[in-house]
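Record 1 of the preview.
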Amino acid sequence: MTYNGASARADLVSPIGTVSGFVEHDGFRKTTNADAGIRAQPLPFFAISGSVSQSVPSNSGGSSLPSLTSMRGEAAIKLFRPWLSAGIISTDNTTGLAPLAYDTLLLPTPPGRASARTAAIRGPVLAGFGVDAWVAQWNNSWSYLPKYESRSEINYANNFAKRFPRGDFEVRAAGVFEYRSHTQFRLSAGTIETGVTKTLSGILEIRILRAVLSYQQRNILGYLYEVVPGFEMPRVLATYGVRWDFWN
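->
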């Protein structure tokens, strides 16, 4: 069987911002998806962004999928060098969603809307150091979704331009702290929940010409935690390797 799809995209760019739109007909899922967004910076220290997306089933295609609408909005101010932002997220939550791959006894979620308030700070700070941190507070009426989750990163980058004027050497390092509050999982026998998740990770990368030596260590402190009840995550996980770009 053959499925066909058609899509179109348009962008309007001005000195203060960008307006974009995208529409697609998905022949396989028998839905029409549309996205529209805007990002503007009317002042050097103030920026706003927002987007809305909608998925509508095709009446003629016999799709069993419901209509879904998601929205996002954010405003940011520049605080010296980094940007400080606050926003909201809202999306339809369809009935029947449950992580059945882990346990077929998990109950589906009811229909409705899931929403969250967000805050973030991102950008350079001083002398090669930067910050990239965000936090989200979800409404706590939904299963399988933590009320609070956050990620905080302090990073450092230096290409030692005076010592290597051709840009052949660079060092990047970062420390990351991730947090997730209790998450509820619904069963017919009752509700169980995971504990609080707190992990500390680090990354170090050294670039020489076009080769990058990378070493990452996740959950450095060996904290015991579960994202899904009964499935314990690795205590300490180390990942290392080399990325090398070749081109002619």
